[in-house]
Amino acid sequence: MRSASNQRETKETKIELECRLDDPSTVEIETGVGFFDHMLDAFARHGRIGLTLKVNGDLHIDSHHTVEDVGIVLGKAVREALGDKVGIVRYGSSYVPMDEALGFVALDISGRPYLHFEGEFGVQSLGNFDTELVKEFFRAFAFNSGITLHARVLYGENTHHKIEALFKALGRSLAEAVRIDPNIKGVNSTKGLLE
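Structure for Imidazoleglycerol-phosphate dehydratase, as requested:
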């Protein structure tokens, strides 16, 4: 089973995470940021991955360090769980409608981290989650997982719907990209490696 555990402790956050790419049976998330928990739950369930996450962060300041550091730790865990990447499909993309909103994510598990992000959010915060942190999470995840990631809100009015569409699209795209195809011999690259 492809899985990884990762911990991170700084003066700002303490994080314990386990990611299971082939066992979606358990999703347990506690970050102290309710909306972020909801988004990570949507990501894991639509990504068909198991995710156990416990965070103690400096929420008395704001949610920035918690959200960014979770992106770092989750990205590293996904990268570790993928190992040598032999047989993975590598690419994934998904459009996800959430009522009036439509989100899109395309990604490449290339080993070359990159983020292109397009999304405008009319509300500054949802609970104790600052909406500008959506891009920060996506950036931290992309750069620590070694994934080329394009994310875009095509349209929508409700900020909750727009952000949820992106997190679900990220999960669905990742599920597609990490799938092992028995017809792929070695790694899915003309170079012969993904790094």
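DSSP finds four helices and ten strands in the chain.
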